[in-house]
Structure formats: structure tokens, C-alpha cells
């Protein structure tokens, strides 16, 4: 896994922005990331760490139970099927199916076969993520409890607020709003990375670790490629500044969304402290990003 935030030792001057910047950019020069991209990552790294802390805190939370595990897994299944309750039409599965149906008559006439293959592979990947979490959910069922049914899934207030903010950013800022939503999607795969650490514990932890590993392997390099790909966009300083404001606002809501999903393992005071930057930033994997680019 690319980051072990709970295992790194705090260094002297860890809250010194200058020292943090030097320490958090391993490999940045080798992949020639721009100063503006590095600044964007530095701005958001504490918020990625905040989302990771939510998940990590839940694993040892006294209120954690089989029922709360099934509840957050059902929420995750909603996200894997729909992405959000706001602005995603038919969801992450039906929209690609609709696109494939429309393109199929044009196969190798107007549309290259590899483009359609890419859409089909993406569809398979998204559905496999739903299946992974749904299987974990169902494996935790007590005798007589029903299997998960997609029609019974629903969003929750924190997820709705995040979706509404992303939609507002897309509507107000166009392409820049879309880039911000893409940058924050998945939260640096923190849920999956933290879930993978449960491997070897047995029981419910083993089910969660396996599901998270399945999704992580599909998503992490893709996510990195999207982040470093921002350097290829034609953006000026004002665009980068606005992008930083949009992504930070979205990631702050991601922390609250995730905390609600897991039942509230972090108190409000700790979330507010994270939003003020009182947390060790997550180390961005510049070397793996270079390989993924």
C-alpha cells in the first residue's frame, strides 16, 4: 500500500508548511510535476489523511458491530451503483449500458472497437466493485436476514450534500468544476487502502479487506493518472487557484460524508481540527504516479 499514515513517525517541525512541503514530495522532480500540481496535492493531502482517519478510527470504535458493518457496506453499495444521488442520471451502470447500446451499431464503422472495449471494461469494473461490497454485506447476514437488494439502497445526508456541491461546481464553473469532481472522486482511495489493512484479522475484517483490495487494485493507478494528468490541461494560475478552492471544499465534505457513512466515529471537534490542517498530511505516491502516467 502506498501510505501507512498510522505508522509514520511524526518528525520535528511536522506542522511547519515548508518542512511538510519538502518531505511530502518524494519523486516529484523525477516525474517533472509542475509547481502548481505539487501545490494542489499539498493543499489536499491533509484532507485525504482526514478521510483515512475516519475509516481507521471506525475499525477500533467501541460502537462498531456486525450491524454497523452491514450498514456502511450497504451505503458503499449505493455509491458503487449510483455514485451520488445528485447529477448522475441512471447511475454508474445504466449510463454506460445506454452508451454501449447506442454505439454498438457503429462498431468499426464510426466507432473504433477499442473504444467500445474500453467502455465494456469500465462497466465490468464498476459492477465488480458493487459485487465485492454486496458479497461482503451478505456474508455478514444472520440466519433469516435478507440479501442486499439494489432497490432498497439509499443515500444519506452527507452524501447528498457532497453531490449537491459537486453539481453546483460543475454548473457554475463548467470544465473546471468537472475536473475538481474528478480529482476528489474516491478520496485518494483511502477507504480501500485502510480496509486492506484488516487482512489477516479473520472474520468480518477479512471480508472487508478482500472487498477493498478488489476495488483498490482497479482504482489506484487510474486515480493517480487522473491527478498527474492535470498538468496536461491548459490552465492558468487563476484556474489552478480556483481548482484548489473547489477540491478542498469537496474533500472537506467527503470527510463528513464518510464519517456519517460509518456512524460517526470522529467527533465534530476532531473534524473541525482536521479542516484547520491539524493532521499529518497523507504522502502522495509520486513515483507510482510517474509509472501510471
List the helices and strands and how they pair.
Layout: H1 17-23, H2 35-59, H3 66-82, H4 91-103, H5 113-139, H6 157-173, H7 175-184, H8 190-196, H9 203-228, H10 237-261, H11 268-275, H12 286-292
In short:
The protein is mainly α. The chain has helices at residues 17-23, 35-59, 66-82, 91-103, 113-139, 157-173, 175-184, 190-196, 203-228, 237-261, 268-275, 286-292.
Structure commentary:
This protein is mainly α and 293 residues long. The protein has a single domain, classed as Heme Oxygenase, Chain A (Up-down Bundle), CATH 1.20.910. The chain contains 12 helices and no strands. It has helices at residues 17-23, 35-59, 66-82, 91-103, 113-139, 157-173, 175-184, 190-196, 203-228, 237-261, 268-275, 286-292. Helix 2 packs parallel to helix 10. It is globular, with a radius of gyration of 19 Å. Mean pLDDT is 87; it is low at 3-30.
Largest sheet: none
What CATH first level would be assigned? Answer: Mainly Alpha
- Structurally, the number of domains stands at 1
User: What percentage of residues falls in helices of 4 or more residues?
Assistant: 55-70%
Record field, number of beta strands: 0
Could you say what the CATH topology is called?
A: Heme Oxygenase, Chain A
The assigned structural class equals mainly alpha
Number of helices: 12
Return residue spans where pLDDT drops below 50 for at least 5 consecutive residues.
3-30
